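We treat protein structure as text, and this decision shapes the records that our systems exchange. Because each token names a local backbone shape, the row as a whole describes the fold. An entry from our holdings is shown next, in its original layout:
>
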Amino acid sequence: MLPVLYRILGTASHALLSAVLPIVNYTVPGWEIEQRLGKYQHIVARSGPLLWIHAASVGEVQAARVLIAALTEQIPGCHFFLTAMTRQGLEAARARLPQTVHCELAPLDMPQAVTAALRAVRPDLYVCLETELWPTMLRETGLAGVPMLLLNGRLSERSFRRYQRVCGFMADLLKNFAAVAVIREEDGDRYRQLGVAPERIHVCGNLKYDLPAAYAGAVREKYRRLLSPGRKKVFICGSTRTGEEELLLPVYRRLRTETAVGLLWIIAPRHLHRLDEVRNLLTAAGLDYALLSDCRERGRSADIVLVDSLGELADLYAIGDVNFCGGSLVNKGGHNIMEPVRWRRPVCFGPFMQDYQDAAELVLAAGAGFQARDTDELADQISALLRDEQRYQQVCQAAERLARSQQGSALRQAELVMRELMKVTCKTTNL
């Protein structure tokens, strides 16, 4: 009954959107409703296979970036079509992926929109990243005979409990995947309990963290040239949410006082529409700051830098001596603390990590960072770490070991893609 109701609702919504399309295009410029209805234009003709990779937002785009790099090396002539669910994800994809990758907004999960998109793209393989499990998309793609893979799969305890309430529906949904590549054993266990056959589950690690050490050094040097920290310690607060910067102000003031060589504070709000809010906060506190975009044009003019560009944070963490992951001092469920760990530097976070509890356990068990109950404890731990060089190096080494444990993920998941493409090629040849 649930799939039928979902399909009826999608069909009705599509009819309504199609009817108001001219009004939407006129009154809401830039919404690009045609893409949401699967009306893609100018899909590039290709001689080799085409992979449709679907990413939810900025984080999944980073995973797609690593996967595309691995596949480009392994399959010359492979073409890529990437869809993002959010505008931020699309902008990050267009900024960070090779220009040869065709990037669009994902179709809404309605039968007509999905079938229109499939006709326009004609993919040889559909790759879904992490937990972007849209029922109509998966059903229609399966009916079209397009093989599907779920890569870099993760399933939080909260999502797992929610999916268990509709276990039969989820089992029917997940059966369309030829293989499910998960980040950790725990993710695999949860997918097994939702009905995925054990032989189709592969524990591969996380694509996002599969970066060679040489690349880490190159990115770090790039940002050192841009921001010229000199001997100053660099404290990055990434993906901060409403109210969090205010909580972090006394942490910054204390660290600035207690750090003998000086401190460079970099703030990257999770959502750019909050920039004015953060700027007003800093101004009211009597603190000078520079925008990252201005640093590119004129050099850094203050010891506080506010990040005002999309898709920058994942690489910017490379320059941090200590990196704080936001959404964790306020009750927002946390953010991906493994992003800074991959740069072999300590990560710290607050008490609210419901959405990334598995990553928090991984970091704490490895000794690659720490969790603070409040801002006083956060300041205590960072200050102590920066004063104790021997302990600091031990934490960096722990982060490096943890990051290294994820290496090889890209190749393992690329091999799953190549295996499915080989099946498609053999089937086409036999026909």
Q: What stands out?
A: The chain has two domains: 32-38+46-210+408-417, 213-405. The two ends are 37 Å apart (CA to CA). Residues 276 and 412 are 43 Å apart (CA to CA).
